[in-house]
Amino acid sequence: MRYNATLLYNNKILTKDSKNLRVLLERSYRNGLTFDGVNDVVLVTSSASLEITGNDCTISFAIKSNTTAGVQQILSKGSASQRLYSVAIDNNKIGFAYGNGFTLFDFLVYIPFTDTTQINHVVLVKDGNDANNARCYVNGALVAHTVFFNTLTPPLLPNTHNLQIGDHPIGYFTGVAPFNGIIYDLKIFNTALTATEATQLYNTRSEIIPIGVIGNCVLDMRFNEKENFTAYDTSGNVNNGTLTNYTVGDVTLGVTNKWVDEFGNPILI
Predict the structure, then answer these.
(1) Are residues 213 and 100 in the same domain?
(2) Gap between the Cα atoms of 120 and 259, Å rounded
(3) Are 71 and 198 within one domain?
(4) Which of 15, 21, 22, 20 is nearest to 1 (CA)?
(5) Mean pLDDT of the chain
(6) How far apart are CA 90 and CA 228, in angstroms?
(7) 237: burial class by Cβ within 10 Å (0-12, 13-18, 19+)?
(8) What pLDDT sits at residue 236?
């Protein structure tokens, strides 16, 4: 692919045939949504498509965290006693958990969240056909290929609880470990993505879903709304999210807007 453009980037002129321009354009994020680390949450009502069954699922997201310490919940679908899937940052580690009752099957892997200016793209895979059934890709690279802590991992067991983005499930330490930062993209698949598919998501900054898994994407939230109390799902499943605890000023074009551009700046126009 050739780009007919000229751009100044890092004080260098990038011409239409520049490899650096191609990489910059392919890997630039669009907009995102800020979470204040206090009580900002996007609430997605439970639906049949979000009730993933079987042994496989994938969660993909791009985030910039404002802090490198403590626990921050990125998302969770469930309650105090049931979690269909749950993702959190735990002191520079990424945690991916699921389970029913109080038995959780999870794994933690180190992830370089030491630079709070960096956007990290993460793909977490639960693959029932792989003896090492947990994989984690960070910025297109495989950083962990292991097993969940409890190797006798059962299939996913759906529940009818809502999906919360930015905090623990309702009634389970809600408000104790909210996410503090920006989420630029969130996708959930009811299948296990391959290494090629995970890398493709990173290389296209999640703008292009791999052809073989388009029908398996149950949530595709790109946070491109600019001013709205709704975060729209573009997967076709209408799993739209409601911004909760945000004020009118938080979602209105202007300097207090929590809808931000790829550099984290409030969207003004």
Answers:
(1) yes
(2) 18
(3) yes
(4) 22
(5) 79
(6) 30
(7) middle
(8) 94
